Amino acid sequence: MSLVSVHNEWDPLEEIIVGTALGARVPRADRSVFTVEYADQYENQDQVPSGPYPDRVLKETEEELQVLAEELTKLGVTVRRPGERDNSATITTPDWQTDGFHDYCPRDGLLSVGQTVIETPMALRARFLEPLAYKDILLEYFASGSRWISAPKPRLTDDMYDPSAPAGERLLEREPVFDAANVLRFGTDLLYLVSDSGNELGATWLQSALGDTYTVHPCRKLYASTHVDSTIVPLRPGLVLVNPSRVNDENMPDFLRSWQTITCPDLVDIGFTGDRPHCSVWIGMNLLVVRPDLAVVDRRQTGLIKLLEKHGMDVLPLQLTHSRTLGGGFHCATLDVRRGGSLETYSF
Which residues are part of the catalytic machinery? Predict the structure, then answer.
């Protein structure tokens, strides 16, 4: 029996990968880093830091990830963790050299759809080999009958990027490139965010890889920067949480217009360590749905917790103290690979 089986973001969770903060670092500045992370610093390239995150940040985050793993295990969820890697090692291709990033966000490089796991062609050069962190887990999934494929490895040459372009136009259309976190699953419908971490060719490749069973909906002018999971958060069939600073009547994806939307309230700014954060305060809505009536939410976001409870959801309040520093909340730092339920088309 395939250990991978997941059709949406809300069916009862059965198995999940929780990332690790061990060895996390900021990669050396190159054209991909300026495009995805530091476009506003392109004219001051020597001011962009690189190297390991502070030990305190990594230690506290690893402890909090372990708490998350333990709480999910108590709920009957099988939890998998990657081992530590040397992210300081040099990555070399014929076109460029860089070092690594982290294995904190399995959501970014692996996309689980149905019984398939896809290694995605990520935008940052530093993440070129990131799927290796999960190789042993993927081999086990493959042995169980799961389908395991990889998108074509992109070259990521300098002409793939234009850091000086407006946000949303910095990742060019020379080859398919996208992070898995540009995608949300709604049964047979997949939302694909066109942004600086996912181009139009990426959506085209994903549609060809998945075939006629699924419809990939490229969404434009929704959020220009990177990933989608702090912009639109499906909670259960027919109910979706939206970011009011990004989502409006004009850019709401057409296939979601019949869904009930609830607007995320103002969030608590949890702060960050270092010169700048890797994500905005909206990472507070980056929650993990365990089942349609339960979600893991940052305990500090009391306004959001009250809103979810008002709409019939229980909340497991946990904390990732450094989510703005490392660039990921509970959804980013996990990858659900098996949920109960079956493939459906949702229309309301």
Answer: 179, 227, 332
